[in-house]
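Bug #2210: token dump truncated for Acyl-coenzyme A oxidase?
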Amino acid sequence: MSTETKCNPDLVRERAKCTFDVNELINLFYGSEKATKERRHFEDAVLAVKELKDAIPEEYLSHKERYENGVRKATILRDVYRDYKAKHNRDPPPNQITKAVIKDISPFLLHNGMFVPTIAGQGTPEQQAEWLPKAESMQIIGTYAQTELGHGSFIRGLETIATYDPKTEEFVLNNPTLTSFKWWPGGLGSTVNHCVVVAQLYINGKSHGIHPFIAQIRDLDTHKPLPGVKVGEIGPKMGFQTANNGFLGFDNFRIPRKNMLMKNAQVLKDGTFVKGINEKLTYGTMVMVRVGIVGDCSFYAALAATIAVRYSAVRHQSHIKASEPEAQILDYLTQQHKLFIAVASSHVYRNAYLWMEKMYTNVMKELSQDKQDNLPELHATACCLKAVCSRDAGSLVEECRLACGGHGYMASSNLPLTYGVTIAAVTYEGERTVLLLQTARYLMKAWMAALKGKVLSPSVSYLLNSLKESKKPWQNTPEGIVKGFQHVSFGKVKAAYETIQKYMKQGKDYEDAWNLASVQLVKASEAHSRAILCEVSWEAVCSSSASPNLSRVLQQLAQLYLTYWTLETSGDLLLYSNITKDDLIILRDKYEELLVAIRPNAVGLVDGFDLRDEILNSTLGSYDGRVYERLMEEALKSPLNQETVNSSFHKYLKPMMEKAKL
Ligand SMILES: CC/C=C\C/C=C\C/C=C\C/C=C\C/C=C\C/C=C/C(=O)SCCNC(=O)CCNC(=O)[C@H](O)C(C)(C)COP(=O)(O)OP(=O)(O)OC[C@H]1O[C@@H](n2cnc3c(N)ncnc32)[C@H](O)[C@@H]1OP(=O)(O)O
Ligand SMILES: Cc1cc2nc3c(=O)[nH]c(=O)nc-3n(C[C@H](O)[C@H](O)[C@H](O)COP(=O)(O)OP(=O)(O)OC[C@H]3O[C@@H](n4cnc5c(N)ncnc54)[C@H](O)[C@@H]3O)c2cc1C
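Reproduced locally. Full output below:
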């Protein structure tokens, strides 16, 4: 980090006000002092590589140049990872330094994030032994090719076909229609030579559902598409410009039998199909990534909050009191209302991610012992938390951007790109509504079990408690609010269930009744997610090992989250809990008190995310607060400022002006 001496004086004053030890917060957020040291050490190593620095901002490059620069940097970054591993005999610590290097999304994201994990998770030990060493060492580069032009959400409807030919012991891959073309996979456009292709398996004319296959699609030497492969890039998007998303179609393309990932289902040489213990295990990589996305949401909320809070401490505009100098915009309560929820939410998502990661690890361990009982809970929880955290994080990033006024609209603030990247997570890895409806299926089953007095899984056991406690008075405490959100979820689950029953009594079948109740079902899932986020995050701060000074501030943040959402969803609470109008007025006042209490620590709290200037990549958010200098320095990098008079003056403007004189 930069030294205090060069800092903007407002930021120096802000840091002096901080009531807790920022380093303690950093160590707590990232796990330990050792984890912080190792992460920073690795980040230093990456940033020391001169070739990773960009000569001009990415925005001035063409689509093609941006991609090529992305690949160039991704390969150098990969070397740094390899060298670290060789030297330390372990992978680098979790870090976000890719953001400092690639800025947008790495063309290798899908290789590391889904191709390798799918081989590890869906391959037999022999298949892992064949492909993992090559993939991990980047001798082959791959992606996860599932979505098609015609189908993304409903994957049982995928149209890519893998027909088994027992004579040659091969699968024949085909994309018979335009809508069957793979569309979206990252890296597919021009980067990868392999992919996991998810396709409908046919044996002797019989369909056996979707399965993952490994296909080599480009020649390893020439990188030309192999015969029978049509592949390309899908073009510019809202973000993800360097992710190199692509399309792919096969025409009678043959792969050996051993290329079907067979940890779950298998196809024997003679074409016998052997079912796996649970066909949904084929969807395993998606579950893992959904868990990871909750962690990503914490990062993006932290990044946007750091930029907007630091900028708001530096920016002065208007007066609170006419007799006083222009105020720091951070002193306006409305600004605090916009920003502090992003700071608080980042902590909430982080705690939810750690909680989900534990659940994921436990279920994976159980699955390795053929125990599947907790898989439905994992799937349902990963679906709804991914859906709710990504949508909220997108909104928070946008709010932070708007809170920076005009300068937030500048690409150099890094807030527009951050929004484009964050909001993509609402769609990828399962569209929000579709995932919330998956959770709703689980909630309906849980509700039916609750009605029968059965024991429920931990994440939904509150449904039983709420059934018993519905008469208890509201309590204006964090624990009381958590219970309140559980009551809302309980009320919405019950109402959605009763709506389905109502339609069925009117003669509708279950599917139509489900569709007619689906707005309520989605809202029930959202309420369930909010109840989990509130409970998990409050428990995490209460059980944290933080010092009293830090603990006080972390509790304020967690309470801010609880109170913010109580006020945002007061209608639901009035409908489904015993909260009163007077309680809401008390909580409104409490919320405003929390904003005021957090205000002196705002800069310390975002410093506690420990995001380097290179990761923030923002004229508005750097540690030293040289906002105006940086805005001007970045503007001067515009190619239009490299010449005093642009040729368009002579070509178009002057002739127009002269014509106008005639
Ligand atoms: C610990 C982790 C740590 C770190 C993680 C590391 C990295 C992550 C971080 C970074 C991310 C890397 C890359 C991301 C960036 C961009 C890449 C984007 C990639 C993609 O988008 S890939 C494509 C993703 N596509 C989807 O998500 C498709 C969504 N659709 C579906 O998943 C299914 O179609 C759907 C909606 C679940 C329905 O499936 P289906 O029709 O087959 O089922 P039903 O609705 O009939 O339900 C039947 C039954 O099955 C249960 N079930 C469904 N899915 C699962 C599952 N995954 N696991 C377990 N069970 C499942 C369902 O609940 C039903 O049960 P029931 O009958 O009710 O008992
Ligand atoms: C940036 C980005 C990167 C991606 N990377 C990859 C990748 O690497 N590999 C890959 O395979 N895919 C990738 N995808 C694809 C992504 O997984 C899909 O776009 C996503 O799963 C949504 O599917 P869809 O596009 O078919 O949306 P649709 O399902 O067509 O959604 C459109 C609308 O229909 C609604 N809808 C659909 N079904 C239902 C239903 N059953 N009930 C109620 N409403 C419904 C949705 O709620 C939504 O409002 C990526 C997408 C993006 C945006």
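Output looks complete on our side. The pocket of flavin-adenine dinucleotide (ligand 2) is lined by residues 110, 144-147, 151-153, 184-186, 240, 245, 424, 427-431, 433-434, 437 (CB under 6 Å). Marking as cannot-reproduce; reopen if the truncation happens again.
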